[in-house]
Amino acid sequence: MNKLKKYYKDAKEELLKVIFPIKEQIRSAYLSVFVVVTVISLFLALIDAIMSLSLSALIN
């Protein structure tokens, strides 16, 4: 039982050390991820379109 109490106490102490991000940091991180994913998606769509067109031209 003492081990369980010590574990709970240690876990609570560690949680007090955690610094949670503020709303502006979360918003800027979300925006950054959204922009990067959008750019990469558009790039891959462009590469796919180019390869599709070149393959269909090669087949015909």
TrEMBL record:
Membrane topology type: Single-pass membrane protein
Pfam families: SecE
Location in the cell: Cell membrane; Membrane
GO cellular component labels: plasma membrane
Superkingdom of the source species: Bacteria
Membrane spanning residue stretches: 29-59
Family annotation (InterPro entries): SecE_bac (IPR005807), SecE_sf (IPR038379), Translocase_SecE/Sec61-g (IPR001901)
Alphabetical UniProt keywords: Cell membrane, Membrane, Protein transport, Translocation, Transmembrane, Transmembrane helix, Transport
Biological process annotations from GO: intracellular protein transmembrane transport; protein secretion; protein targeting; protein transport by the Sec complex
Primary location recorded for the protein, binned into one broad class: membrane
GO MF annotation, one: protein transmembrane transporter activity
Function: Essential subunit of the Sec protein translocation channel SecYEG. Clamps together the 2 halves of SecY. May contact the channel plug during translocation.
Record NCBIfam families: secE_bact
Membership in a protein family: Belongs to the SecE/SEC61-gamma family.
Subunit structure: Component of the Sec protein translocase complex. Heterotrimer consisting of SecY, SecE and SecG subunits. The heterotrimers can form oligomers, although 1 heterotrimer is thought to be able to translocate proteins. Interacts with the ribosome. Interacts with SecDF, and other proteins may be involved. Interacts with SecA.
Protein name: Protein translocase subunit SecE
Organism: Halarcobacter ebronensis
